[in-house]
Structure formats: structure tokens, C-alpha cells
Design goal:
Residues 25-158, 170-300 form the UspA domain. It comes from Rhodococcus navarretei. Helix content is 41%, strand content 20%. The chain is of the alpha/beta class and 300 residues long. The radius of gyration is 20 Å and the shape is elongated.
Length: 300
């Protein structure tokens, strides 16, 4: 069932992090791939809007790389390559917006540990996501979920949208009753407002919770009314955002992955109740983090 948020919904201003007037650091992980370059460009656009500093991070080794040990020649070569990558990224940022303040970090720590430490003082961590596939999912999926788990601030996993994605494709937020979802709703409205695109609030009910046929329509209306109330405060704080409410009875993983393929951004909380009642390391969260159809933001 689909609806829009009524204009007369009672609401208060959306509180918290996403309502603050100024941002601090956006941390961007670089590994030389096209995906990390896409993440860098996306972060640059956001930094231009928020006035954030960008901190570029490159790890000499990853958790899946062999230890360098005493192979100083290898280490020296990796350092040279890492510094070259960071310099190139700084130059690209300067070309996008000369006003962005940039610093860079070359670290010996595994990337998840380095980003986790930096997340304590950052407003956002941005990483590039590989295309999905059995081997890629095993390698990148584990590393991505480690990064999400280690970070104390929101994490954005960037993936290119499909070539046929509409320029006004919506920000999609998965809605449940959890506290992290409340923060995800605030984030989704902030991004929809900043990007000047509509927002889709999606609540998925498990098929086994389906009511009796005679109760189906009234139950859907009650759920739709609840969903409207769930996003009302954020909608009031961002009145320019066009909001659509969707209530579905299906697999949450399937519907969120399907929605991500045509969304500007998929936003989810890091922990939920209901259809995806698990921390982000649960099967649904892990699937969304490393196999979404476009960018996904995980909000704590």
C-alpha cells in the first residue's frame, strides 16, 4: 500500500545530529579502485554542501593482505604508491572544490581499525563498495561489515547507480520501531532535502504476520497511519521534501535490495526490530551492506 504524508500530521522538529548547522570531518577510505574514487567524488559533493573537512585514509595493508614483516623494499614501494594515491586524490578534490579543506593519513593499521578510530571524531565515514559476486562478497563483505561495526559514526558504502537511474530517484529509508531507525529517518530527510529529491519511507511486514482477509485492509491502513506518524517529525523539519509511504508484506531483504537499485541512496539503521530484527552483522544487514544496488548509508 502506498500513500503520502498528510500535511496536517502533528510533528515537532527532527532533533539530533542531522539537524546541526555545521559538520566536522568526512573520512574517506582510498584503495586505488574506481569504487573508492567514486566514494571520493561523492564525499566531495557532500563536503561542498556541509563545509566539512575531508580526511583521506589509505592503509598500507589490509586484513586480507600478508604481513610485510621485514620486507622493507616492499614496504617502501607501498608507501610511495600510497602517497601518490593520496596526492592524486587531493588534486582531484581541489579541482572539484578548491574550498574543501583536506588532510591525508597513510597508516600501517588494517583499514577497519583505522576508520574505527577516526570515526570517534568524524561525522561520516565513506567507503567504496565492490560489485556483488560470490568471491567479492566473501572478501569485501567481511571487510565492509567490519568497518560498519568498528565505526561509531554513520558509514556510507558507495556504489554507482544503474545507468538508467532517474536523476530525481528518491532517497529510500527502511522504517521499523528501533531508535537507530529514528536517526536513520532524520538522516534520510536531510539527504533528500540536500539533494532535492523525494523520499520513500518503506516498512516491510513479514508475510507470516499477515492478518485475516477481513482484517487486511483495516490493518494496512493502521500500519500506514503508524508509518506516517513515524516520519512526521522529520517531514515537518524538511517541508520541501515530497514523501511517499510504502507498506509491503514480503521479504525485507528482497524489498530493500530491490528499492536500492533505483534509489539515490538507501538509508537504514544499524540495529532494528521487526522484519530485520538483527544488528547490521545479521544476514539482512550484511547483504545490504555489500550487495545493495546503489549507495547505502548505515546510521547508528
Amino acid at each position: 500500500m502506498v500513500s503520502t504524508v498528510p500535511q496536517n500530521d502533528p510533528a515537532s522538529s527532527a532533533p539530533g545530529f542531522w539537524a546541526k548547522p555545521e559538520w566536522g570531518d568526512i573520512v574517506v577510505a582510498l584503495d586505488g579502485t574506481q569504487e573508492s574514487r567514486g566514494a571520493l567524488i561523492w564525499a566531495a559533493g557532500l563536503a561542498s554542501i556541509t563545509g566539512s573537512r575531508i580526511r583521506l585514509v589509505h592503509a598500507l595493508i589490509s586484513r586480507h593482505s600478508p604481513a610485510l614483516g621485514n620486507q622493507e623494499s616492499i614496504r617502501s614501494r607501498l608507501q610511495v604508491q600510497g602517497r601518490r594515491l593520496l596526492r592524486s586524490a587531493r588534486s582531484e578534490l581541489f579541482g572539484i572544490d578548491p574550498g574543501i579543506v583536506v588532510d591525508s593519513i597513510l597508516t600501517d593499521d588494517p583499514i577497519a581499525s583505522a576508520l574505527g578510530a577516526l570515526s570517534h571524531t568524524a561525522d561520516l565515514v565513506v567507503i567504496g563498495g565492490r560489485a556483488s559476486g560470490p568471491i567479492r562478497d566473501i572478501v569485501f563483505g567481511r571487510n565492509a561489515t567490519r568497518i560498519v561495526t568498528a565505526s561509531t559514526c554513520p558509514v556510507l558504502v558507495w556504489r554507482a547507480q544503474p545507468r538508467d537511474a532517474a536523476p530525481n530517484s528518491p532517497v529510500v529509508v527502511g522504517v521499523d520501531r528501533s531508535e537507530s531507525c529514528t536517526r536513520a529517518i532524520d538522516a534520510a530527510f536531510w539527504y533528500a532535502d540536500a539533494l532535492d529529491v523525494p523520499l520513500t519511507a518503506l516498512h516491510v511486514r513479514s508475510p507470516h504476520e499477515r492478518p485475516a482477509p477481513e482484517e487486511s485492509a483495516p490493518e494496512q491502513m493502521r500500519t500506514l497511519h503508524w508509518l506516517g506518524g513515524r516520519v512526521a517529525a522529520a517531514a515537518s523539519a524538511h517541508p520541501a521534501v515530497v514523501v511517499h509511504l510504502h507498506v509491503l508484506e514480503a521479504s525485507a531483504e528482497h524489498e530493500l535490495r530491490l528499492a536500492s537499485a533505483s534509489a539515490h541512496l538507501l538509508v537504514v539503521g544499524s540495529r532494528g526490530h521487526g522484519p530485520w530484527a538483527a544488528p547490521i552483522l545479521g544476514s539482512i544487514g550484511r547483504s545490504l551492506v555489500h550487495a545493495s544496488g546503489g549507495p547505502i548509508l548505515v546510521v547508528r
